Automatic annotation (TrEMBL):
The 4Fe-4S ferredoxin-type domain, residue ranges: 141-170
Designated name of the protein: Fumarate reductase iron-sulfur subunit
Family according to the record: Belongs to the succinate dehydrogenase/fumarate reductase iron-sulfur protein family.
2Fe-2S ferredoxin-type domain boundaries: 10-99
EC number: 1.3.5.1
Cofactor note: Binds 1 [3Fe-4S] cluster. Binds 1 [4Fe-4S] cluster.
Entries under InterPro entries matching the protein: 2Fe-2S_ferredoxin-like_sf, 2Fe-2S_ferredoxin-type, 2Fe2S_fd_BS, 4Fe4S_Fe-S-bd, 4Fe4S_Fe_S_CS, Beta-grasp_dom_sf, Helical_ferredxn, SDH/FRD_Iron-Sulfur
Reactions it catalyzes: a menaquinone + succinate = a menaquinol + fumarate
Any one biological process term the GO annotation gives: tricarboxylic acid cycle
Biological pathway: Carbohydrate metabolism; tricarboxylic acid cycle
């Protein structure tokens, strides 16, 4: 049996827009420990080898979504991706694709933050709010629960070939979050979201490659949410065409 290597090479993309002409790859040797995630390797580099390395992280528990990166060509949460899975190495760490790079592994997600409010990802309720608790049955909650698990990690946008080619595309996470509220029994805002979700830059831009759902670390299935809303939008459009205004419900 071969001895397990004690170190692994991490090949990290370095780039300072406005200062560097192009990204470069810098290699670092870090300890290969069973419990170390890719993020632990980056923290070792930052603390002991090169304090100039820039990247995002916060919770280290797969909850905050801030440590998304491209690891050996795939969008991953670096806190939940382990170095031993890439032994003997090297392991290549790059910024998420399809986003402008701010510095090194840090990307600018302003485009998503501008698009997200357009789907009104909050409860919209007609009339007076109910007194006391707004109760739901377990079945009603199951309708939208998986879409509520999104942590805005941007892995789905990095994996999406449509977003790579069509920057106007609303994107997987934003559409899934819109659906999360459309399917909530407490919400009355489906019509308020319709023009955005059913637009050419909304669900109809999606070609159903499905990479967004594959990349999602929380099992949200944005591809499923998009296809489900396509049916909703098509039925709604047909009703608009065939039925008089007062009979569309």
């Amino acid at each position: 049996m071969k001895n397990t290597p004690k170190t692994i090479t991490m090949q990290v993309t370095r780039f300072r827009p406005g200062e560097d002409e192009a990204p470069v790859v810098q290699s670092y040797e870090v300890p290969l420990r069973k419990e170390w995630a890719v993020l632990d390797g980056l923290n070792h580099i930052k603390d002991h080898l090169d304090g100039t390395l820039s990247y995002r992280w916060s919770c280290r528990m797969g909850i905050c979504g801030s440590c998304g990166m491209t690891v050996n060509g795939k969008p991953q949460l670096s806190c939940a991706t382990f170095l031993t899975d890439y032994a003997p190495g090297p392991v290549r760490v790059e910024p998420l694709r399809n986003f402008p790079v701010i510095r090194d592994l840090v990307v600018d997600i302003s485009d998503f933050m501008e698009k997200l409010p357009k789907v009104k990802p909050w409860l919209i309720h007609d009339g007076e709010p109910p007194e006391g608790e707004f109760l739901q049955t377990p079945r009603e909650m199951d309708e939208y629960k998986k879409y509520s698990m999104c942590i805005n990690c941007m892995l789905c946008y990095s994996a999406c070939p449509v977003y790579a080619l069509e920057p106007e595309f609303l994107g997987p996470a934003a559409i899934a979050l819109g659906q999360r509220y459309n399917l909530d029994s407490r919400d009355d805002g489906a019509e308020d979201r319709r023009d955005v979700l059913a637009s050419a830059a909304g669900v109809w831009a999606c070609t159903f490659v499905g990479e967004c759902s594959t990349a999602c670390p929380k099992g949200v299935d944005p591809a499923g949410a998009i296809q489900r809303y396509k049916l909703t939008a098509a039925v709604s459009a047909l009703k608009d065409y065939l039925l008089p205004r007062g009979a569309r419900r």
